[in-house]
Amino acid sequence: MTDKNLYLADSYQIPISTAMGDSGDKVKSFDDLINFSLGDPDLTTPEIIIDKAFEDARNGHTHYTNFYGDEELIDEICKFYKEEYNYPIKSENIMVTTSACHGMWLVLEAITNPGDEIIIPEPYFTPYPGQVKMTGGTPVFLPTKPSEDFLINPTDLESMITDKTKALILNTPNNPTGACLGKERLIEIGRIAEKYDLLIIADDIYTEFSYAEPFVPINTLEDFFKRTITLRSFSKNYAMTGWRLGHIIAEPWLITTVKDINENNVFTAPSISQRAGIHAIRHRKEFQGEITEVFKERTMHAYERLRELKNVKINRPTGTFYLFPDIRDTGLSSEEVTDLILEEAHVLVLPGNAFGDSGEGFIRIAVTVDNDKIDEAFDRIAKMDIFK
Question: What is this structure's pTM?
Answer without folding.
Answer: 0.94
